[in-house]
Amino acid sequence: MILVVGAASRLGRVVTRLLLEAGHAVRATARRRDRLEDLAALGAECAELDLRRPESFGPALDGVTRVFASAHGLTSRRGDSVDAIDLAGHTALIDAARAVGIERFV
Predict the structure, then answer these.
(1) What angle do CA 38, 43, 48 make, to 5 degrees?
(2) Are the C-beta atoms of residues 5 and 68 closer than 8 Å to each other?
(3) pLDDT in tens, 80-104
(4) Cβ(73)–Cβ(81) under 8 Å?
(5) Dihedral sign, CA of 79, 34, 8, 54?
(6) Residue 84 class from Cβ within 10 Å (0-12 exposed, 13-18 middle, 19+ buried)?
(7) CATH of domain 24-105
(8) According to the model, what pLDDT value does residue 72 have?
(9) Where are the alpha helices (DSSP H) in the chain?
(10) Residue 10, class by beta-carbon neighbours within 10 Å (0-12 exposed, 13-18 middle, 19+ buried)?
(11) CB 71 within 8 A of CB 5
């Protein structure tokens, strides 16, 4: 299974659709699961993952072999710094992925 982090973003939606069309099993993630309803209708498994909350990584990574990370903090309306998402969040996600043996992380 391929995990798409930030699947509610423009890039994440395109990547998720292309992976599904190519026949891959995809787990699409976003901070809010309700933003993924259209991708669920296409066959994606959907889950919440918040790069500010490392405790959300484990369930999202379960059974995954590859990760495509398209989440970013550039358009955050919550006042989060870019570093909180793009640096600290992704670093923590990479560490969690490494710990569970993810084969490829993009």
Answers:
(1) 65
(2) yes
(3) 566 667 778 899 999 999 999 999 9
(4) yes
(5) positive
(6) middle
(7) 3.40.50.720
(8) 76
(9) 10-21, 37-41, 57-61, 82, 90-99
(10) exposed
(11) yes
Please enumerate in sequence order all residues whose Cβ is within 8 A of that of 74, keeping only pairs 6 or more positions apart, or say none: 82, 86
Tokens (6 digits) for 24 = 């891959």
pLDDT tens-digit map of 37-51: 999 999 999 999 999
Q: How far apart are alpha carbons 35 and 55 in whole angstroms?
A: 20
Residue 24 phi/psi, 5-degree rounding, is -80, 150
For residue range 16-41, what is the model confidence (pLDDT) as tens digits? Answer: 999 999 999 999 999 888 999 999 99
Q: Which one, of 57, 62, 91, 89, lies nearest residue 74 by Cα? A: 89
User: Are residues 26 and 4 in contact, defined by beta-carbon separation less than 8 angstroms?
Assistant: yes
Domain ranges for the chain: 24-105
Phi first, then psi: give them for residue 31, nearest 5 degrees: -65, -30
Give the Cα separation of 53 and 31 in Å (integer).
Answer: 10
